[in-house]
Amino acid sequence: MLDLNSELKQLVKCCQLHKARQMFDKMPHRDEVSWTTIIAGYVNSSDPFEALILFLNLWIQPGLQKDQFMISVALKACALGMNIYFGKSLHGFSVKSSLVDSVFVSSSLVDMYMKVGKVEHGCKVFEEMETRNVVSWTSIIAGLVHGGYSMKAIHTQTIKQGFDESLFVINTLASMYNKCGKPSYVMRLFQKMRMPDVVSWTTLITTYVQMGEEENAVDAFRRMRKSGVSANQYTFAAVISACANLVVKEWGQQIHGHVLHLDIISWSTIIAVYSQAGYAKEAFDYLSWMRREGPKPNEFALASLLSVSGSMALLEPGKQVHAHVLCIGLDHEAMVHSALISMYSKCGSLKEASKIFDGTKTNDIISWTAMINGYAEHGCSQKAIHLFEKIPSIGLKPDYVTFIGVLTACSHAGLVDQGFHYFMSMIDEYRISPSKEHYGCMIDVLCRAGRLSEAELMIRSMPFCSDDVVWSTLLRACRVHGDVDRGRRAAEKILSLDPNSAGTHITLANIYAAKGRWEEVAYIRKLMKSKGVIKEPGWSWINVNDHLHSFVSADQSHLQSEDIIAILKLLSSRRGDSLLETCSSEDVED
Question: Which positions does the entry assign to PPR repeats (predicted)?
């Protein structure tokens, strides 16, 4: 039994929950450890629904003792799933069985009540605890902050109880002050820490970024590395955000001067910074330099380069990164594998993306999502939907990004009913709360189908403040379908958020022009002139001999403009028309 439980724990620890569940279901005998392990696996995988179903099955099993660890895990599932009713039942059982006296159970109760918004219940459990640990204090602080309670009162209580020396509690307090916009308090707490950990440093770096002090954020990152503390994904997210701002300010040259002293993490961070900021050339330059002078590139750096290659449609540089990935054997890393699929998809090479996807030896939802999104973006809606429908059969569960892909596919194919089916299954079956992006997809589904009144109703009934993105979707649809009144309402909403939106003014004027309402057109043009609203030209680019050329409409700034125009004239004569003439259109302004 011990060996089986050890193997089960290892599978759960390695995030192979599907295999763990298969093993669990085939076990001839399951003890308390087996049940707690598999339930904890589902909790850690953010699947509280399945965790609680398993716990109910455990409950009716004869001869099994419900101990403090088992109840604590079930309470975590209740907190994650916002299941107050089940949580209260567990609370009652804990009192009857005296398990509530365990600091593990009582702390989990506090955490559960705070996360479901029952602050009074959480405080009552906390006050009745005979002993309180770091977890209980952290839970109560975080819950009270979320409930809008006084920061000073919370901090005072931690000092009175002697918990101000605990690093966990101090980190929670620092995070509290950071989220509430009190950076000076974060600094003071950090200075009092004897041995800051990664959470402490990350909070400090994030605070500097929020204050606009990017140099201090990067300096804090350096000091953290010197102190021997290893960065995590949240640290990198914070420092990359700082560096991206500094790159825009041409601060990147300062990094360049210290490049020979960088380690693998620093190299990867710099490449990611340039990639995220859209500096493709600089990112690839650093990759070349890294290969000559530094350590071997890791999956983080390569995935960043593949991302910028895809976003800028740089197929050849993307292929070069792919070749390097194959050389160092990182093609089966989930992060790189999904980035390759995404890069080829965004560059229009769906055949190559499909080949990479089909050749994978392991299944992960990130790669499946990348392929679904690739098909959806290129109008291959049925392929995207077919792939989405296969996900449950291989033991995976779609995440919120996967649903964006399949909803986009439904939008492009005009599948309104099927789109709503997926939208509701996301909520009811997978317990995923729709984000603005999901609502945006559904609004696009309705707009493309010409169901503009339903689209407007959905925008107004969203559980979020509607932004200019969804209203712009409706405005464009109103232009296509000639809905003047609704278009005017959409434009008014956009202009209340962004008064100088040139595109909105122009689209509304075009709606009026299509209906021959020239007085309104003249008014819009006059309004744009009085506000000084000018439409920024759209940039295009083309890669020639590994050199990126960018240009705008009627641009003659290129050194070879005369040669380019001569070639265009030659092509025009062969086509029998003029590529250089402005196309006639009903648009007020292109």
Answer: 102-136, 197-231, 263-297, 364-398
pLDDT at 583 over 50: no
Sign of CA dihedral 569, 572, 576, 578: negative
CA 200/CA 481 separation, integer angstroms: 54
* Cα→Cα distances 295→240, 252, 253, 292, 430, Å: 20, 20, 21, 8, 42
Q: Structure tokens of 269?
A: 């961070």
Q: Of 131, 159, 189, at which residue does a domain stop?
A: 131
Residue 160 domain flag: no
Report d(CA 307, CA 274) in Å as an integer: 11
Cα separation, 330 vs 307, in Å, equals 16
Spatial distance between the Cα atoms of 520 and 588, rounded to a whole number of angstroms: 12
Tell the burial category of 359 from Cβ atoms under 10 Å away from its Cβ (0-12, 13-18, 19+): exposed
Which of these three, 73, 97, 131, is where a domain ends? Answer: 131
Give CA torsion, residues 303, 308, 313, 318, to 10 deg: -40
Domain membership of residue 574 (yes or no) is yes
Residue 67 lies in a domain: yes
Residue 170 is predicted with a pLDDT of 62
In the block, residue with structure tokens 């973006």: 377
Range of the domain at 43: 1-131
- Percentage of the chain beyond pLDDT 70 is 78
- Residue range 70-82: mean pLDDT, rounded: 91
CB 367 within 8 A of CB 337: yes
Q: Which amino acid is at 134?
A: V
Tokens of 450: 């010409």
Domains in the chain, number: 2
Token pair for 508? 């509304």
Token pair listed for 590: 């292109």
- The C-alpha R_g of the chain, in whole angstroms, comes to 28
How far apart (Å, rounded) are the C-alpha atoms in residues 94 and 101? 8
pTM of the full structure: 0.55
Distances (CA, A) of 259 to 230, 236, 263, 303, 366: 19, 18, 9, 20, 32
Closest CA to 206 of 231, 226, 234: 234
487-519 burial code (b ≥16 CB/10 A, e <16):
bbbbbebbbeeeeebebbbbbbbbbbbbeeeee
Q: Which of 392, 386, 355, 358 is nearest to 372 (CA)?
A: 386
**Distance, CA of 514 to CA of 15 (rounded, Å):** 57
d(C-alpha 279, C-alpha 302), whole Å: 15
Alpha-carbon gap, residue 401 to 397, rounded angstroms: 11
Per the domain annotation, does 520 fall within a domain? Answer: no
Distance CA 141, CA 159 (A): 12
Q: Which pLDDT score is estimated for 21?
A: 92
pLDDT surpassing 70 at residue 501: yes
Q: What are phi and psi of 332, to 5 degrees?
A: -100, 0
Task: Quote the tokens at residue 112.
Answer: 């559960």
The mean pLDDT of the chain is 80
